[in-house]
Amino acid sequence: METAITAVAGELLSRFISFTINKYCSSNGCLEEKGERLQRLLMRVHTVVEEADARHIANSGMLMQLKILSEAMYQGYLALDTLRFQLHEESSMDKVSDSFISISSATRLKRRRTFLAPVNKGKNLYLEVNGALENLEKVVSDIAEFVVLLGGCERLSRRPYDAYLYIGNFMFGRHTEKQKLLNFLLQHNPDGAPAVLPIVGGLAVGKKTLVAHVCADERIRSQFPSILHLNGDNFLSIVDHEKAILGMSSLLVVEFVSDVDDMEWKEFYSFVRTNRRSKVVIISKLERLARFGSVRPIFLNALPYEELWYLFKVLAFGSADPAEHPRLVHIAEGFAKELHQGGSLIAANALADVLRRNLDAQIWLCILNRCNKVIEKNLLAYGQHPKLLMEQGHEVDMTDFAFSPVSPLRIMPCTSSSSATYAPVKELPQMTIGELLLDPSVRPKGQFNLLSWESRLPPYTSFIHFVPNCTEDSPEGTHLSRRKRRGMAL
């Protein structure tokens, strides 16, 4: 009798919860219907954002509205992907739901305990989708005026690598930052002296890519026939370019990795100001260098999670339709979360390049597990995330990433250089991260150079790590072992 009562009670509870969910869903619109509505709104907003990216927007209010549109768009894409995966999981579970009809009373009790988790998960999903939908509906309701004003903005010249089809060959996102830099370069110097714009951001957030993308515009090249790239080691050699500076409008792009003495900057700027039509762009991760700017700096932060997720998903799937691979989309979300916490655009491109070649869930899970092991191992050994170790000039243990437990693998901080001018130290052999990941047996013996990524945008920057001969086991005890262990900073 007690067993029968328990079984009946469990069945009644399950039906009551199902009835509550169905009533809640029908009163607010089914998730499937909301997903379709969300997809239609995303198509409209994406069209406007893509068109805005092809226009020259000088109005600050329109730039602010463009930022709001793009943020709502990426939030909507994240909610839509989450919804699609959840519906796919529920569809898979429905195929085996009939097997629970004749289960024992003990199994029914277990079912009662676990049934509440999907309910809470469904509620969270509903709130996420509904929030993204309401946000999109709000921005779409105000989009008409923006579209009208957008029609009066000058269209930018388009280059082949700007096309959406070639997403790996163009500057992704940064819509407002691109417009701000373009406006700075096209405006006349207000006080007759060369204007200086600092672009400040962390390691590998896309500072040089942003400048390279804007400098490729035909109007910028016609206004600045001479574009000189300098760094903190040779920026005072500007006197060697006297003819270029004095004879035509020049754009000077200076990258600093460390602070600069005020007297040295004054000496540099006193020479530059001999040509009042010139402009200077400073690139650095040091905020204190913003003191040299004559206009408000452009600060490049790491991409928001929603935007990074969209970028990584598109890069990882390439020409494949993510909707046809919901399981892979879920795994890709795991990569995006790790990259957002401590990765970079370089790591995102490198990983996506490997994943795109193998649309297999087992391979993707294996690579994700290796990445997690690398993070955990460096946190345990050195107390910091691998990205922070790199930024501070310390080596990183990548043994688990290359699946080579017998032969340790440690890499030194990445150095960037043009692929046309970079000469490997002592003509060391070189391989890519993808080659090492897919086939660790091809790893060269002794020292070698590890190419993490090569930009597809001019000036085609290569990001190369030096891998010491770990069989000697000397680096591990030299620099990192003497450091105090600190907690991870996100």
TrEMBL record:
Which InterPro entries does UniProt cross-reference here?
A: P-loop_NTPase
User: What's the domain of life for this entry?
Assistant: Eukaryota
- PANTHER family attached here? OS10G0134700 PROTEIN-RELATED (PTHR33377), RX N-TERMINAL DOMAIN-CONTAINING PROTEIN (PTHR33377:SF16)
**Protein name in the entry:** Rx N-terminal domain-containing protein
What is the scientific name of the source organism?
Answer: Urochloa decumbens
